[in-house]
Structures are given as C-alpha cells and as structure tokens.
Amino acid sequence: MSVTLDIRLKRANKVYLEGPIQLISSNIEVAKAGKIPGGKTEIPFEFPLHTKGNKVLYETYHGVFVNIQYTLRCDMKRSLLAKDLSRSCEFIVHCQPQKSKVIPTPVNFTITPDTLQSREKNSLPKFLIRGHLDATNCVISLPLTGEVVVENSDVPIKSIELQLVRVETCGCAEGYARDATEIQNIQIAEGDVCHSLAIPIYMIFPRLFTCPTLETTNFKVEFEVNVVVVLHDDHLITENFPLKLCRL
C-alpha cells in the first residue's frame, strides 16, 4: 500500500516534475504460503494509515499540477512454473471533518458594463444582471446554490453558464507558479431568457476533482466559480467568486 503526492511546477510553458513525494509505503502479509482451495476465497485484512516522519495525509485529489492518490497493490507469489499475479487499485480517503460549524457567507452581485474590468466595456451593449450565491464558504458534500436574474439587456442572451475552476499554486527553490484550470462547466440557461425571472444556481462538487481548500508550505489548492453570460455574438461576460471548501 502506498500514498504519493505528485506536484508538477509549470514555468516558461514547461512542466517540471517536483514529485512524486511518497507519504506512505507499507507491506503486510495477508496469507502465508500454501494452497488455495478451488472456488471463491476471501482473505480479510486491515491496516492503519501512518505517515512517514512528520508528513501529513491529505484528502484524495486529482488535479493538473497536484495529485494526491492512495493506491493498494496485491501481489500473489506463485511457484516457479507459474507467473506471479498482481493487481492495483486506488481507494478514496476523506480528511477528518472539521468540528466547528460553517457560517454561510452569502454574496450578492450586480453585473453591468461599468462593473466589468475590460477595456471594451464602453463598446458593450447595456445590460443589468443581478443575483446571489447562498454561500462562498461551502461544504464539499453539499451543492453550491443561488440564483441569477437578467433584469434587462439590449441584446439577446445566448447562454448562462457556471464554471468551476481549480487554482493550483506550486513552489520550489526557483519560485512559485499559479495556474487556474477548468474542472466543469454547467449550462443553467439557454437562449434569450425572460427578464426579471430568477434562474436557480445549482452545482454539485465532483468528488475526485475537488477537495477541501488546501494550503501547505509547498503547494496550495484553491477553488473559484465563474458566472458566465454569453451574448448572441459570443461575447463573454464573466463574474468571478473565490470559494473556500471544507468537510463537515
């Protein structure tokens, strides 16, 4: 059984491998040498997860530049005339839930040409979009919820989408690299939606590609959500919200 933390540092459009860092590696014998009878044989086993030295166990996470994986490999040694058998599989680990309650931090937002940080905002058509997120301190096992309302728009709207983004920061002696990549994109409205109609926001956090917000000496894993409005000419209007994920 082994646990590896794989960190890749991206600099000057090149990716350098800083890991993998092995957090756990242990071997246990679950059955002594002998013959296995015909039919189905089940051999129970268990083992504690103890780290090497002062290393810390993190929650399972599959990212682009940071990967935390727990792998179990079973080897069956056979006689000289038969080939040994081996099979590996990944198992999922959750971190210890925090005991303190999460206080919801609702966020209201208003999107107009004046609120956008864009050089082209003077050439944009007039629009007014309001909404809110019920919380930006989110429990990872619960959905992200809220609503968005298009109050008015001089041009038709093509689509409204939710984009979940991972922000991975990796560091070494040369410095730090921060990269944001998309995890998933969900369309919550299609076409020129009715004005002043509340459109619900509902997004489930995918298990393997998210984890509680993590900050260590060598790397950070953070998350953000973008509310993206696509106009009829494919012009994108984006509002960004940092999220803090935790497990209860």
Please name the CATH topology of the largest domain. Answer: Immunoglobulin-like
Oligomer: single chain
Number of helices: 0
How many structural domains are formed by the residues? 2
CATH class of the largest domain: Mainly Beta
Question: Could you list the spans in which at least 5 consecutive residues all have pLDDT below 50?
Answer: 10-17
In sequence order, what are the helices and strands, one letter per element? EEEEEEEEEEEEEEEE
Number of strands: 16
Give the strand content: over 45%
Specify the biggest β-sheet.
6 strands, antiparallel
Distance linking N and C termini: 27 Å
Give the rounded overall mean pLDDT: 87
Shape: elongated
Which class best fits the helix and strand makeup? Answer: mainly beta
- Level-2 CATH architecture of the largest domain: Sandwich
Radius of gyration, Cα only, in angstroms? 24 Å
**Share of helical residues:** under 10%
Organism: Haplochromis burtoni (Burton's mouthbrooder)
InterPro entries: Arrestin-like_C, Vps26-related
Protein name: VPS26 endosomal protein sorting factor C
Family: Belongs to the VPS26 family.
Protein model, in words:
The chain has 248 residues and is an all-beta fold. The protein folds into two domains: 2-90, no CATH class; 107-246, Immunoglobulin-like (Sandwich), CATH 2.60.40. The protein has no helices and 16 strands. The strands form three sheets. Strands 1, 2, 3, 4, 5 and 6 form a six-stranded antiparallel beta sheet that branches. Strand 4 and strand 5 form a beta hairpin.
